[in-house]
Amino acid sequence: MWGELTAVGMRQHETLGSMLRDDYIEHLGFLEKDYVYNSIQVYSTDVNRTIESARSQLYGLYPWDQPGSEKHQQSEASLRRDDPDLQSLPQEDRKYIRDDPAAMNLSKISSLYDTLTVDKYLNRPFPKDLTDDDYLNMRHLHYWLNYFKINFNLSKAINTGKLNRLLQDFDGRISNPSQVLKWTFLSAHDTDISGMLLDLNVSSAKCVE
Predict the structure, then answer these.
(1) CA distance 126 to 139
(2) Is 38 helix (H, G, I), strand (E, B) or coil?
(3) For site-directed labelling of 124, which of 6, 87, 135, 146 has its Cα 20 to 30 A away?
């Protein structure tokens, strides 16, 4: 189903959680080996794929067979592209679209790029008339559009709350080094990262150009 976390994505997040466990629990001893509920805070946007991303990563950080954790079962989510129009596109000007070419816009190209990226990773074939150069052009437009859409005040509106919370957490740790809470993370989207890079003046649509 479009927009859902795939089984591969779940395993990737669980692997990342295992790597974090190796670093911050086994080697550094920063977190307790057994799960302590009030030492970790986890936030996610209200989207199923980001919630599942956080859940899968926590499975790696604290596997189900560790004391204090619950046994888990991962559902097999898959992203399928089975629309016949995307399997074989007879007209050159219908490469990227499902419907009327006149309805195509940058947002639709960006959305389709996400789907094709997953297909590429899973070794699924591209639509018949879509070339590697087409894919690279779509990627360029996708990156540019993501930065352009959240430029200026919009990126500040998206990230002000996150940055304020980050500063509050640091201030809280400085003022109370013995507090139980040690770990806070947010499961969000690539657009959140783009906005953060803009606010920190690290990148922009002009850099992509």
Answers:
(1) 14
(2) helix
(3) 146
β-pairing, 183-187 vs 40-44, is parallel
User: Domains of the chain by range and CATH?
Assistant: 7-76+151-208 (3.40.50.1240), 103-149 (no CATH)
The set of residues, in sequence order, having a beta carbon less than 8 Å from that of 10 and lying 6+ positions away, is 52, 56, 74, 77
Helical H segments across the chain, by residue range: 7-21, 48-61, 84-87, 106-121, 132-149, 153-175, 190-199, 205-208
pLDDT tens across 60-96, in order?
999 876 554 443 333 333 323 333 333 433 333 334 4
Contact 140, 133 (CB under 8 A): no
